[in-house]
Amino acid sequence: MASWSLIWVLAVVVWSLALASAPPARADLPAWTPPGTGAWVETPEGRVRLIAARRALDGDSAVRLGLEFEPVEGWKVYWRSPGDAGYPPSIDWTGSENLAEARLLWPAPERFSVIGIETIGYAGDVIYPVHATVTDPGESLRLRASVDYLTCHEICVPRTVALSLDLPAGPGGASAHAQAINRAESAVPGDGAAHGMALEQAVVEDDGAVLRVAVRADPPLAEPDLFVEGPEGAWFSAPEVAGDDAGLTVLWSRAGGIEDLRGVPLTLTVVDGARGLEAEVTPAAAVGPSPLAPASAAAGASSLGTLLTMLGLALAGGLILNLMPCVLPVLSLKVLGAMGHGGASPAHARASFLMSAAGIIASFLLLGGAAIAVKAAGMAVGWGIQFQHPLFLVAMVVLLTLFAANLWGLFEIGLPGWLADAGGGRGESDHGSLWGAFGTGAFATLLATPCSAPFLGTAVGFALARGWSEIALIFLALGVGMALPYLLVAARPGLATRLPRPGRWMNRMKVVLGVALAGTAVWLLTVLAAQVPPLAAALVGGLMVLMVLVVAIPARRLPGRAVLAGVAAVAALALPAWADRVPGGATDDGAQGSPLTGDWRPLDPAAIPALVAEGRTVFVDVTADWCVTCLVNKRVVLDRPPVAERLAAPDTVLMRGDWTRPDDAITAYLASFGRYGIPFNAVYGPAAPDGVPLPELLTSGAVLEAIETATATTTRAASPGS
Q1: Cα end-to-end span (Å), the chain
Q2: Is residue 4 pLDDT above 50, yes or no?
């Protein structure tokens, strides 16, 4: 017992001497911290502090500091370029005294891969070196730092902490942290010379899509990785690696979100454990073969396998598109096309359905070509974005009105003789010309594209993130998928020829189907009214009524009726341009194209992390007035129990993005999920801070399950911290 008493007395004496030798405590700092050491700031995920390599300034204007993280096991923080998700630490030095400049450095990071999500950062303890400069070396340095950072494990938590550190102006040797800061600085990639590394080559191959980097190292690199930083929106895959015994290592990284890397400034960081090399390059095209081949030839096979999988999804997505609510506006054309072949010869029926399929496929290829052109021009591209443009809407209204008037028998459009002969129009006039079938397929496709379908969004997202060849192949597969029912009937024409021959019943049916097309035109006018002043949309509708009345007058009584109808159509097409110039025209109302009602607030992706950090659930709905499937989702699922009751919970925040008109912010938000079309819904929560995307066609079960997944803290969410 006496021995323990002696130890206790000695401890008290040592502690008292330490307090006596320490500098006077400041009111805003703990009672005592070792020289060159800031106080820890604790969070449930770990702790953070500022440290210095010296105990005092010692008359030096350059100060070596460190931002030190000690996370709880399993948690991590991020590099300056965090990868597919996350964000790096940032420091605001407001409130510091005698600080001229402070620059944060980045040690060599590591890559984390979870279900295809690539993030870059640091697991475990890490020190970010900070190189600072003081204004007056003869005065003390008072550091006050507000640090924003994201830390992730099974969930991601954004934090802001206030750190402080004081260094006196007088003499002082190395602090207890000098060696740790030295090690952190040595891990910051430089030109590689200190680590025996040198960049030999950085070139582009495979038509500009693949970056090839050659590094010479002594000793040879053991487990290298390559991190590439490029233009906004570009991303780069984990590298394929090959090396030889002479110390040469070649790394290949495939680019996404950019067509061609040639002449594009890039920052390369090659990492091998604590060794690193960083270089700014502007690669040119490769001349000659690579000095080494990839370690695994499976890379090309894997890429081919991915492409084949996406082609299969595109085929399925195009087929399912025939069943989506989006195609309701063109159901009349589909029904009429099938019924018109009753009693026709099998050869004509087969040719007609093949031409309809050709019209569908040609339209998809045209859409793919437009996507390639828009992307090459650096503009936002997405599925169905043509419905965001008033001129397109008016053109569709005009065409639908003409189709309806034609079905009502108000006028007939005869094809030129040579075209009718080429299309097989003569001799089978009761069953329509082949060029008419082609046009019907093309027009039906154009009207069926405002909404997405299962698998379609995935396939289109894959294509639009890659090059022109992938876009062309995916859109071709989509067209073949949507054309499959037509191809099936072409293979078995008896399915159509056994229908009753066209007669009076067909004329009555045409009137009904014409009414359906006119209803579609009215629906498009309501979409137009959300993009231009309602008066302009009403004028378009009035001109369409005038056009129908004009063509209803027999040609013998009004010889110039075609000219008058054409004037009405041209006037309607000119109205969107006029509406942009008049006061009170369509205005840019931010992220939303139309007012939101109820408890919905405008979509604000930047506000979601803070809401989730408060423990709240965020439900996002991206919709548009022209998206029929979106309307079905709302009326059948979102606005009805039990989903509506769950969304009305106090802990749930509802955000809606209106994509009726072009909006770059919404386009970028969709692209962050690999989506380029709508409907789109996602649920965020403490267990899913990066969001759980929902299928295009909602069900109550799918929505409630996603909400449970996002809110259950025990559920492992697919996040960058996973």
Answers
A1: 52
A2: no
